[in-house]
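Why show two proteins at once? Because comparison is the fastest way to build intuition. When a single record is shown, students tend to memorize it. When two are placed side by side, the eye starts asking what differs. So, the first record is below.
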Amino acid sequence: MTGENNSVDLLNGALNRIIKTLGVENNFEASFEHPKHTGQGDRASNAAMRFAKVLKTNPQVLAQKIIDGLNNDSELKESGYIQKIEFAKPGFINIFLTGKFFSGAVQDILKQSENYGAVNLGGDKKIQVEFVSANPTGPLHIGHGRGAAVGDSVARILKFTGWDVQREYYINDAGLQMENLGRSTLARYYELFGRPLEIPENGYHGEYLKDIAQEIKNIHGDKFLNMPAEDCVKFFREYAGEKILDGIKKDLEKFRVSFDKYFVESYLHEHGLIKSAMKFLKDNNYAYESDGALWFKSTDFGDDKDRVLIRANGISTYFAADVAYHKNKFDRGFERVIDVWGADHHGYIARVKAGIKAAGNDPEKFDVLLIQLVNLLRAGKAVNMSTRSGEFIELNEVLNEVGTDAARFFFLMRRSDSQLDFDLDVAKEQSSNNPVYYVQYAHARISGILREFESRGKNLPDDNFEIPPEIFDNKDARSLVDLLTSYPDEIKSASKDLSPQIITAYVLNLAGVFHAFYNTNNILNEPDEKISAGRLNIARAVKIVIASCLKLLGVNAPDRM
């Protein structure tokens, strides 16, 4: 994988070489960071304080040795990146960079193009992200939409950082909910013929079942009226489930979400995977029989009581299916497994981790992302949008009102486990108040600048064009490129923490810093051609990074708006 940030890597490489020569073992990684306060240089490192204890020396003494090493490093000298290096108590090393460093950073981005920031963390190891996994009992609601955006963006980020990613959707097609779906649809079918049939307790009342029942009537007429209701449930369950799943897939396609695999729960039953997983638990003393049921020793893992796996009537619990399913995931060779769940499943995490460990796998390789509720707002007040689901606001309704770009961006603006307020009015605004519009406008503005530049008969500057260093005397130009150099670190953080909101926050900040740069740095009408070309290349680098961020978020990067 390509994507190394050469200018920054040169600084960090020199720092690590010097620390190694001073006696620190190889299992370390030191780097220069952006300082927290102005006046502390362009980069700072606390490496002296980190390693002073290991080397049994004073951090101030060690800091000076590192500074001397940096000042004498031939590669750093040749680069021309260092203006000066200073020591600050109690052991900080502050570096002041030249304009040549920032010019080099722009060259790195232009040369690496869409690969810029693609740090290799995964080493092409297999990782599975299972998300959405809504039961096919009704349309997707906005909670599913937030989970879909988070799961899909996490998968994109992991792929960008070197993981071999598989996206999976788990379909519960074998439980009581599906049975209730079949009975609810049958009741709607009877209703069309004026014959009463009660919808079961915990059944489904949404208008969408009337449409499905009408389809069945159109195709089969009154065929099922002449059959015992119990004999009809299987057909109605399967027909309604398939129809609803088709609708779910269409909504996800509209939302730019796709899956590599749809895994059905019935596969676990039909291929004996639940049975074999239960045998494994029993053979390894993690399960026992009592009162005719099979129990999992969850108290061995800190649970308040043991949990039923197989009921006395021989029917497996959801937990038994989850144990078998997650065992199957690891059996398929995934190095890591990530599940995206609703926040109401928080208490279930420890139990599934226990099941994973009991089934012979490492629970530390299993992560759960929790999705909190979404509050839709209009004019600052909670919205009760019309919904055909009978209970929830459908994702498709939101997409029809604000569009996929706005929906995805808004869903990804906060940590997934924090509650989200989604203002529909703001999401539709074409102004700087709308964050997705603000970011997309920055990308479109740069595209417009490039078109105008070429329409004037000028050729775009070469990717290796060395930007005049005086350009970076302007604080907005310097801040902008400095922010671009931090993109690979933002990507690392987003990948390690499974946090797309890091990218959303970064690209919002980048758009704002670019707009400030544009207001103080004339590009098209700058009389000095070298200055104009330098500023143009900075804008080109910004365009690359904005497009990269939006791609990871699943949002379009328009060239015109």
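Second record. Ask yourself what differs from the first in the token line.
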Amino acid sequence: MELAYKKQNCTQLSEEYIGKEAVLAGWAATIRDLGGIIFVEVRDRSGLFQVVADPKINPQVYETFQKLKSEYVIQVKGKVSKRPDDTINEKLLTGSIEMYPDEIKILSSSKTLPFVLEDETVSEDIRLKYRYLDLRCERMLNNLTLRHKIVTSVRNYLNSLDFLEVETPILIKTTPEGARDYLVPSRVHDGKFYALPQSPQVFKQLLMVGGIEKYYQIAKCFRDEDLRADRQPEFTQIDIEMSFVEQDDIIKMTEGLVKEAFKAAGVEIQPPFKRISWQEAMDRFGSDKPDTRFGLELFDVTDIMENSTFEAFKGVISKGGTVRAIKIPNIAHYSRKDMDDVRNLAIKFGAKGLAWVTYMQDGTVKSPVFKFLNEEQIEEIQKRAQAEKGDIVFFVADMPKVVYDVLGRFRLYFGEKLNLIDKSKHDLLWVVDFPLFEYSAEDDRFVSVHHPFTMPAYEDLDKLETDKGHVKSIAYDIVYNGCELGGGSIRIHDAAIQQRAFKALGLTEEDIKEKFEFLVQAFEYGTPPHGGLAIGLDRLVALLTRSESIRDVIAFPKNSQAKDLMSDAPGVASEQQLRELHLRLRNQPKVN
């Protein structure tokens, strides 16, 4: 497509254009004056193209070239010519051609940039403060280009399956479950607030009630979470919901979607992906998003320790705890300081202590716990661990959640440290059969593992009132190389079951009416069986580009303190704005 200032993109030109006129526009990326002849690499979104000014050929053009500085925006017109053989740049897509322009215009000048675009050592804070310059870097351009390709492939795939893309509201009512809401005060309704959606969950379910049947949205979501290095207060997810489906339908659809998204990134994968239950994932890997590219699997020694004389472990078991272990190969040479560091790491991960058995290279076995075990128990530990010379087996005893977390993190730590992870693999799997509830000591009640609209496993419906801790759900997460790409569930579509689920969460009739009356009411008008899932777009793109942070695949992200260093958001509201919103600040904010 020809534009007012350019007729071709830089990399659109090839040897087929030799002798033909071209009109380019872009930035002066590099400028080199070699013995009176000036070479400029013009950069646009497509790439680079070399233009040359020789005072003997066109003194007026040469005079303008002399005024150029890095990052000036220019337009050049002229015929494409072949480069001399000894100046061909094989690394450049247009490295065999160039242009001696007949005309050049300076469209915009530029100050000296605060950092060199190609410098990969520039701090992230500087890059975020001048994000509009950082976007000119090849790395950022490639990331955003791939993001676009992935979104396009997702849309094309879902459109081909007869989905409708529907937008849901951004200003909604605050809900009690999940992370903290971002609140928006209403000017019109004194003392009342909207919330920004943490997800379109309720509305996509209402779309199913409304007969849309197949919905998707590239949805903007907001969560006012505690600060973490790789979290964003606003993020994007691929949000999907379907009617008249069961779990297998959604998994099959999602596998096709993921295949197309990976294909857009040049990665070929082949569904179906393996499935493991949540319990198996926790028992083997200590995580509900297991990285299965390497071994180091956990194993259970609760029964052995229960019959030992090790009172510390037996005490944990008697209170409902567990004792599990992990074998780390070829570290028996660790010094006392190394072992102290490992113990401190376990404590940092949440363990109250750490025990171990060392299988020395000379065939001897050392362990402070052996005095509590008989020979048969010692042999059984080695058998379960499949321990060999040079290995160390570590034990953690505590409540299951703590043990899984500590050993799961231990596993990842040693997997990285010992270079056991095959980084070339693309390992995808489903984790299914999640618990419906988990007990929150902080709230002193059961809370939803996913959200309160998740369907209980049909065989566990009779446990909703009597045995909440053992109710499974029809929920599923898709995991890629140890990272959760997304997850979803079959939803409750029966109003009576939804009421039971609300009450199992400790919600009173008043709570249900205040927070979810419109949803419960909608379910009374004919609701199809339905389910769906959401995939984190930012995380998906970050993983496929091997970016260290999701900030590298978002055009204008916040930093790790949830600030926009470029625009200095969040900012201070004026007194007039506060009055219109019926707000008064208890403390004046500090201005940085």
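One difference worth noting in the second protein: The CA atoms of residues 286 and 408 lie 4 Å apart.
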